[in-house]
């Protein structure tokens, strides 16, 4: 029995929640995953998981074994990384998650230049506005546009952006300018979903944050679609300035409600804290910082 392999399988069951999810990830059958667990429990002489037809839960012994196994596997991975650091070449795969708009607009040119410098690295990028749980191992780095950070991760600020409110000149000519945020109740709004603010827009009123719930006519998790809708005169949008730069430069959108603009929001590269970092991770994060500083 490969004890380390069985420990890895057990840890992934705990983290993913089902045998079938682990089987899919490892490209094995569910029966094989079940066999690994049975062998592991038999070798230890204890039950690690309470199984029902609908759920799995850790036993007391299982909880203790999970945390010690997780630490042992992480120590082993860090040992391998520390040895590999002695090599001169940066190589391997980076699993990256980024917000849909920021990733779609800005990250491809960054990745293109990085891969020119480090041709033996491969990058897998997923775009999602919901921050991933880095502890489940699906991603090495998560880019976040946020003012709230998980205290359990390393966060390096790569840039910052303003969160502003915009409309097209045509929309404002037909519907008038909102003089204050309360006026938004009589305007057509375009809402960005899947953000930490939920159904609300954020503003600054006399130095204090204030949330306004808008009566939106179009909602999407894609800021580029909402900016295009705003440029077509469909309504008012609140978005990071980075997402609307091209529309501002062309005059298709103008900023409104400037007196209520929120403080700048930071863009972070986040990753798990550990004793040793692979060269692919440190080189990519350092590259990001230098790129956006330029």
UniProtKB/TrEMBL annotation:
Keywords recorded for this protein, A-Z: DNA-binding, Transcription, Transcription regulation
Keyword Electron transport found: no
Pfam families named in the record: HTH_1, LysR_substrate
InterPro entries per UniProt: LysR-type_TF_proteobact-type, LysR_HTH_N, LysR_subst-bd, WH-like_DNA-bd_sf, WH_DNA-bd_sf
Top-rank taxon, per record: Bacteria
Boundaries of every HTH lysR-type domain copy: 1-59
Protein family: Belongs to the LysR transcriptional regulatory family.
Name of the protein in question: LysR family transcriptional regulator
Source organism of this protein record: Methylomonas rapida
